[in-house]
Amino acid sequence: MAKDQAPVIRLEDYRPPAWLVDTVEMDVRLDPARTEILTRLAIRPNPAGGGGPLRLDGEDLELVWLKLDGRRLAAGDYRLDESGLSIASMPDTAAVLEIATAVDPSANTRLMGLYRSNGIYCTQCEAEGFRRITFYPDRPDVLAVFTVRLEADKVAAPVLLANGNPVESGDIAGTGRHYAVWHDPHPKPCYLFAMVAGDLGRVGDTFVTASGRTVDLGIYVERGKEDRCGYAMDALKRSMRWDETAFGREYDLDVFNIVAVSDFNMGAMENKGLNIFNDKYVLASPETATDADYANIEAIIAHEYFHNWTGNRITCRDWFQLCLKEGLTVFRDQEFSADMRSRPVERIADVRTLKAHQFVEDAGPLAHPVRPESYREINNFYTATVYEKGAEVIRMLKVLIGDAAFRAGMDLYFARHDGEAATIEDFLACFAETSGRDLTQFKLWYSQSGTPEVTATGRWDASTSSYELTLEQSCPPTPGQPVKQPMVIPIRFGLIGSGGDMQPAVVEGDGVTGDLIELRAARQRIVFRGLAERPVPSLLRGFSAPVKLTTNLDDDDLLFAAARDSDPFNRWQALQSVATRLLTDAQAAIRAGGAPAADARFLASLRRTAESADLDPAFRAQALHLPTQADIARDIGREVDPAAIHAAEDWLRGLIGASLADTLRALYGGLALNAPYTPDAAAAGRRALRNAALSLLSATGDAADIEMAERHFRNADNMTDRLAGLQILVRAGAEAAEAALAAFHDRYRDDPLVLDKWFTIQATAPGEATLGRVIELMRHPAFALSNPNRVRALIGAFASGNPAQFNRPDGAGYRLLGEVATQIDRSNPQLAARLLSAFRSWRVLEPVRRAAARAELERIASLDGLSRDTSDIVRRSLE
Ligand code: 0A1
Ligand code: ZN
């Protein structure tokens, strides 16, 4: 094992900053190889017992000089080390510290701090990137007012942007250079700092706020891509309006700018007034973006915009509170998308994501609480748990205290903590106050990791016309948490009878109000009396809590619910539950060398749903999507054989394709849109259902259906259909697949975002040849380890989107990932660590794969010189 490990940072060790920063004035002289940054900080001892020695963070910086109150400091006046700078002897009053640093943006491959993407200067400072620009107390509870002057070569960088409002700009005579000054009046932590410079195209618009102020909106992109910004701009304006109506939040600067760059470690970043985006989440045209891309753009534009209040105006005291801004902002963007599109379909999609990523994370070695209590590398905590489970916790809070108290609590939070760096305690106190409730037990959702398991056992007693429901909860052990306490679990419910939802005459037992059960104890018993017939309970409506629910309902009950439940989410869930059982049984049969058993009732129910013209096509498309392979693996829970799960999925898809062929063909024929492409939810829903039908049809391998898919590909007038056609051909291993891949490549060879899709389709193709193909594609001239999107499109997609081939029993998939990730680790540790999280479920695999995965993890762990990011992920995976 490699030796040193980064130190553990603990929530309990939090101490307020010794020094505060009131203002930051920066003068940045941009140069590709040596950018100089002069920073002037007005600092003062923290009145809450601060002062004393000054410690500033700094990483990979050249210190040019340092002045304290105008006096140049000599080498003996301060101490430099690899993580920063200390000045032992400080005045005990306010002071001015001036720092000159230099960095090389072109050599910055980590994409943290100041770097270059396709010739554009840009920055990424969350979580700890500002320390790669200058020496600074790089922590979110130090809030300062920033003024930034940028200067650069006028030809290379005609556009100069920073946070806040523009103040002035002009030429620097005789130098070929120009400058711009930006001022952000809102105090902010340095992780929200941003600057951009380059030769960028601009798309402009305006937005008039509720109080009548006009805001200039700009989206900046690489030249030639301006015509792909229309949807993002529209989504931005809708987000701004929505935050006014849904949360009473108005925008607070004169300008709002978005810049799209092609090299970015994550999705996007909410820098104050200057959001920087991975261009994948900005650029869209019918020819290049799928419906899913459009939906992602809408959600991420909204997410970053909503951070202006939840994250920027109120920020986090420390990085342990990350969910304070992320969970809340995901909740807000989910609600926005639900209002823009279909609420039930949105909920289904969100829950699918939650289960596919967060439930998997929570069940493995990387499980951690929504608010972690310790970390070695904060970059590794931008996780599904912090984001998605964090959003679920907010959603539960709303369900528990009701809409009115929730909104009042949000208003109070904004009023009370505006301009502050807050904690989860601060946040919850607002809701305790507006609801009058004690949220002590609720708070366990922030500290206990693992997915709670709820068992519901119902018993009908005809002699007393009563239905008894026993609910039990438990939570499996997770790293560092062997024993859990019972949580408060909101369970929305209904009782379905032959005529719809039934109302019991009397309810006995604790915790039931209207359609909500509050499960608080380890075991709770509820009796519904005065029912005319045996009900089928519909539990956890709308997925009211992020738990694993097991019931004693049989398939007949579930299929009854699939047809009758008044809650659309649970109609979908009921079908999924039956499909999960079928797939789990099928993979067991396949592993035992037998044949899986069909279920005519399931097929009939699926047919009915698919044919129900009164149901939204987008909803029907979701019904036709089987549980993911990860869902099945989770259901099995141990000794998992991904190849058997894959075979079971193939079998069931083929069975559905054959048994429902007439229905699916009718859908395919009937749903064609004879109008130009529009990305709206209704049109996207039709395409989703039509493509789902085609995909199932072709799963039989029937020549006519494959030919139909080929025509679908060839005749498509938009990327959604073209890509769906290509995917079907590749997945079916059709003869036409290679020619289609080549045609696709030729058409889009100069379009990186589309070429990413081409890489992904091949990386996720079934069959043993895929590994070799991935290796071959790494030699493709367009493949580059330096571009995170490309790496994720090929290597990330293979490791996370192709479970059967990544988890090859010979371990070759693991070795490939290990080799590529350790190579990337030398240039971009964040990206490497994220790729390696694909190992997170290795412990539940059957012994051969488990041993191979462990061997690769141990090999990586033994390497010298691993980054903190990668060694943290690998070590935790092995613990
Ligand atoms: N706050 C951003 C996520 C983000 C985090 C770290 C980054 O560093 C590379 C970038 C973005 C969000 O929630 O959108
Ligand atoms: Zn966010």
How is the secondary structure organized here?
Blueprint: E1 9-10, E2 19-29, E3 35-45, E4 54-57, E5 62-68, E6 71-72, E7 79-81, E8 84-87, E9 95-103, E10 113-117, E11 120-124, E12 144-153, E13 159-162, E14 165-172, E15 177-188, E16 195-198, E17 200-208, E18 214-222, H1 230-247, E19 255-261, E20 268-269, E21 274-278, H2 291-306, E22 315-316, H3 322-340, H4 343-362, E23 374-375, H5 384-401, H6 403-417, E24 421-422, H7 424-435, H8 444-447, E25 453-461, E26 466-474, E27 489-497, E28 500-501, E29 506-508, E30 512-513, E31 516-519, E32 523-529, E33 536-539, E34 548-551, H9 555-564, H10 568-591, H11 600-611, H12 617-624, H13 629-636, H14 642-659, H15 661-670, H16 681-698, H17 703-715, H18 719-731, H19 736-748, H20 752-763, H21 769-777, H22 788-801, H23 803-806, H24 812-825, H25 829-836, H26 847-861, H27 868-878
Parallel strand pairs: 2-12, 18-19, 19-21, 22-24, 25-34
Antiparallel strand pairs: 1-23, 2-3, 3-9, 4-8, 5-6, 5-9, 7-8, 10-11, 12-15, 13-16, 14-15, 17-18, 20-21, 25-26, 26-32, 27-28, 27-31, 27-33, 29-32, 30-31
Helix pairs in contact: 1-2, 2-3, 3-4, 3-5, 4-5, 5-6, 6-7, 9-10, 9-11, 10-14, 11-12, 12-16, 14-16, 15-16, 16-17, 16-18, 17-18, 19-20, 20-22, 24-25, 24-26, 25-27, 26-27
Bound molecules: O-methyl-L-tyrosine and zinc ion (ZN).
Zinc ion is lined by residues 303, 307, 326, 329.
